[in-house]
Amino acid sequence: MEMDTNKKKLITHNGSFHADDIFAAATLSLMLEKRGESFEIIRTRDPETINSGDYVFDVGGMYDEKTNRFDHHQKEGAGGRENGIPYSSFGLIWKHFGIDLCDKNIDVWSMIDFKIVIPIDAVDNGVDIVIPKFKNVTPYGGEQPFLIFSPTWQENEKNLDSIFKEKVEDVKKILKREIEVAKADNLGGKLIEEAYYKAKDKRVIELPNSFPRYLYQDTLSKFPEPIYLIYKSDHSETWKVEAVQKSPETMESRKPFPKSWRGFLDNDKKLKEITGISDAIFCHRNGFLITVVSKRGAMSLTQKALLEPSQIEPQDSI
């Protein structure tokens, strides 16, 4: 069998693996696959093998984009972002090649950078980006579902290379999906902004579609005026009315619905009586969401809620 002399060598270190080398390998793999180029992933610390690599990352002690060397462990590091978070191998690879995976869309590239790349770079460089509000409770990091496949101290480590390559394949699927979601969110965010700019009363925004909650809340909470938003449910013939969050950083509403409206379920007659809306169906006990049968009922309800005194208080989780 003839060897494929055109096969690119992607070289990283052997031994234990981390999120940055897994995600860096996945990014390079997707890039080369998109270009139609063949490649192999080699895990080693042998200097001669490293020097022969077409792409070397997280090993080699050098950052030089011209020769495709992307390590960050050298004494001088590999630089950092304006926010002070240093680059890891993943960040360097994404910086130079991620834009091609995003079809040259800088907005999509940036969304992935902030959502996935920067957090992984921070953790790999020992930078804290989260301050726990509750003792012994921390977020389950996005890299954890992959790193848990590292052998425990009780398990044999001889399969590390095959485990690494298996996780790279998993991450490739995640990255491809995240890019598609980012493209949809980028377009959706623009449509939500357009709805805001078109609204005559910017306190109440009608959405043209049922977008993901994080998308419309993050988008509208950046503007000072929106208090409520309405949209048609894509699961039933009903309309949803939501209170807009104070900012993208909190789930606290700018103006929750009145306490007297909250906690009524399944077409409770009392909810209809209290609100004066005959087709009101449900109001969340935390006062951020109401379901109404008709658009007319939804609009009437928001007008009534706007006239009610503010009753802002700490909210439980959604």
Automatic annotation (TrEMBL):
<comment type="similarity">
    <text>Belongs to the MYG1 family.</text>
</comment>
<dbReference type="Pfam" id="PF03690">
    <property type="entry name" value="MYG1_exonuc"/>
</dbReference>
<protein>
    <recommendedName>
        <fullName>Metal-dependent protein hydrolase</fullName>
    </recommendedName>
</protein>
<dbReference type="InterPro" id="IPR003226">
    <property type="entry name" value="MYG1_exonuclease"/>
</dbReference>
<dbReference type="GO" id="GO:0005737">
    <property type="term" value="C:cytoplasm"/>
</dbReference>
